[in-house]
């Protein structure tokens, strides 16, 4: 019995049909751009597509899925944005393992593009093509993107898959050389199915988290994990309007002391959804949006939250 590599991917029938037909009709493009918001299955789709591309040629077909997950297939190069740390490149996951806190986000570097060129310079070993996947392709600096452009113009026996949040997030010169594959927000039924199948049913009991996710299972899971970071007592206090000026100042102090900037930015999203469900007041959402902009501009967090909660107390 033939197993469909795309069976784990839910809620993206258009992408599945496009990619499946490309293989069936032997019309696989030299380069693809998978675009859509985070957490809707782009990375999973890339893994499924690679499995489909390799399944016809790889000799040890039974071990193919596990080899792809482990990243040890000789004809696959999976590229992720990295940090530079003590002369080494670290992915976001590796930086987290080392408890490294970085102010700037990870990026795909020029030397990683050079490694792609070197990888594609040899013929495939087990399958009919080499495959390169670039996660968060929008993080490439212009120099890296221009270096990749030369590879896209003459990929040889290869297929490249770029993953990005939107077409506008990558250079037009790259976009013009890729076949675009759109990924969409999941409907409620598909979102529920994904969360249930992945063992995250408890998230379905948190409407504000689901609202923040906006049809993205990955964002729902990430938001729920952020929710667990916030002390329960603090969260209970935050879901109600401040009862006094003193209460507003105490909340601001606690947030600044106990939550890092990333969690504070997530909290803005969560409170916007939670407060809207309670009060349906656009002015409150506007105040929180101002708080987000101030945090992103590296304003003093305690002062940002003091102004926000004092304004909230006055308004309500």
Automatic annotation (TrEMBL):
Pfam families: DNA_pol3_delta2. SUPFAM superfamilies: P-loop containing nucleoside triphosphate hydrolases. InterPro entries: DNA_Rep/Repair_Clamp_Loader, P-loop_NTPase. This is DNA polymerase III subunit delta. It comes from Nodularia harveyana UHCC-0300.
């Amino acid at each position: 019995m033939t197993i469909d590599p795309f069976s784990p991917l839910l809620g993206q029938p258009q992408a599945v049909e496009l990619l499946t037909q490309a293989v069936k009709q032997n019309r696989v493009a030299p380069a693809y751009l998978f675009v859509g918001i985070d957490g809707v299955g782009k990375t999973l789709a890339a893994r499924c597509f690679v499995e489909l591309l390799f399944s016809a040629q790889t000799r040890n077909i039974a071990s193919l899925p596990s080899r792809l997950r482990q990243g040890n297939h000789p004809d696959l190069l999976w590229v992720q944005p990295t940090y530079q740390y003590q002369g080494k490149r670290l992915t976001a996951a590796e930086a987290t393992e080392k408890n490294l806190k970085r102010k700037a986000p990870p990026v795909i570097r020029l030397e990683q593009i050079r490694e792609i060129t070197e990888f594609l310079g040899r013929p495939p070993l087990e399958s009919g093509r080499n495959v390169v996947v670039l996660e968060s392709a929008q993080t490439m600096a212009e120099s890296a993107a221009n270096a990749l452009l030369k590879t896209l113009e003459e990929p040889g026996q290869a297929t490249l898959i770029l993953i990005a949040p939107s077409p506008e997030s990558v250079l037009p010169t790259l976009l013009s050389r890729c076949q675009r594959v759109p990924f969409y927000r999941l409907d409620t039924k598909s979102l529920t199915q994904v969360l249930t199948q992945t063992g995250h049913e408890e998230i379905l009991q948190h409407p504000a988290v689901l609202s923040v996710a906006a049809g993205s299972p990955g964002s729902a899971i990430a938001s729920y994990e952020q929710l667990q970071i916030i002390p329960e007592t603090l969260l209970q206090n935050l879901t109600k309007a401040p009862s006094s000026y003193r209460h507003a100042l105490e909340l601001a102090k606690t947030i600044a002391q106990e939550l890092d900037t990333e969690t504070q930015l997530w909290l803005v999203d969560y409170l916007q959804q939670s407060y809207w469900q309670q009060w349906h007041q656009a002015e409150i959402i506007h105040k929180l949006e101002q708080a987000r902009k101030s945090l992103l501009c590296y304003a003093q967090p305690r002062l940002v939250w003091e102004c926000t909660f004092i304004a909230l107390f006055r308004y309500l």
